[in-house]
What does this fold into?
Amino acid sequence: MTRLLITGGAGFIGANFVHHWLGTHPADRVVVLDALTYAGNLANLESVKDRPELRFVRGDIRDTPLVEQLLREERLDTIVHFAAESHVDRSIHGPDAFIETNVQGTHSMLKAARTVWLTERAVREHRFHHVSTDEVYGSLGPEDPAFTEATRYAPNSPYSASKAASDHLVRAYHHTYGLATTISNCSNNYGPFHFPEKLIPLMIVNLLHGRALPIYGDGRNVRDWLHVSDHCRGIERVLERGKPGEVYNIGGGAESENLALVETLCAVADRAFQQRPELIEAFASSPAARGEKSATLIQFVKDRPGHDRRYAIDCSKAERELGYKAEVTLERGLQDTFAWYLDQQWWWRGVMDGSYQRWIETHYR
Ligand code: NAD
Ligand code: TDX
It folds into this structure.
């Protein structure tokens, strides 16, 4: 039986991971530590909130004594560290929070794990898994080979620089103190509970409301898309089969230029409006409701400063050593994701009008 501390478990990937883990390991203990920032949302855990195996703690990863206390009192042996500031555009406007959470926060987690697991020897075996990003490797040209675990770090945004720094700290705690760490560097995720500031959910919500679909620059930047369920399966493989001290790239082998991706999403939306007439009334301001193409909403806007041109992940090490394989094709994943946003309007409407944030502030002071 594994006893996990999942940081950032009320965020997009963390919450998907909590659902995944409780589904595949129903007897395990799962403690979620999350500060419930603008990106954290208890609604993401609504359907599992009454499970006795799950405990939610609102708290900050920089609160080292709190993390130590949780590790001790719950006899936790595994940390899956998702908590982070995750949006590149926000990091450009305000880098400080990224240093505080991603660098200092990760260091606080490492210090707590070292104290309880190595100094106090509270558990027989332990694992500190750090969830990181392909953005630490920088930007690729059109013909460059995909990032491997040996690619030199070259982060370009305050976000990716802060993630790179945290990766280095994790590595150092393994090398210097013998903490049993693993790191996964993953490509762009999408799927349920994705906060509507990121490309795919923003485009879905905007097109449903007939709002412009802003494409940065020429729209030819390439991202390597991975359905979040495949990412969760990949992390599970790392926890079960990965070796301490190792790094694993996790990806989907689904590169797409942003413009092409948004055009595909628009086509998915147009088909959905044809097949589900009730959408016409529900989203009357969408072009699809008038029988027009959603792609007419596409607008090219000013580029993101320092915008990385292309990411692509070579995940052959994880495939070979862990038996990892992405299962969801981009086409299927986009259809399922669009359907999820249609069926779960309560979720994104609550996120966007701030009502969840207000609820959190009254219930979790
Ligand atoms: P997210 O922004 O949706 O969620 C982050 C969560 O962390 C939120 O619940 C937030 O409340 C919590 N948090 C933030 N600061 C905290 C603090 N100081 N203490 C405790 N909790 C705090 O992020 P996400 O997209 O789910 O990403 C999760 C992790 O995966 C991040 O480490 C990110 O770098 C990494 N990652 C994300 C992607 C992606 O495509 N989204 C890809 C690769 C790697
Ligand atoms: O409105 C937009 N228009 C646009 O053209 C937005 C929000 C984005 N974009 C572009 C920028 C990127 O090239 O789309 C691409 C994807 O943008 P984001 O969704 O902001 O993701 P990205 O910057 O690639 O970073 C994401 O993947 C790696 C996550 O946010 C990171 O946390 C993760 O590490």
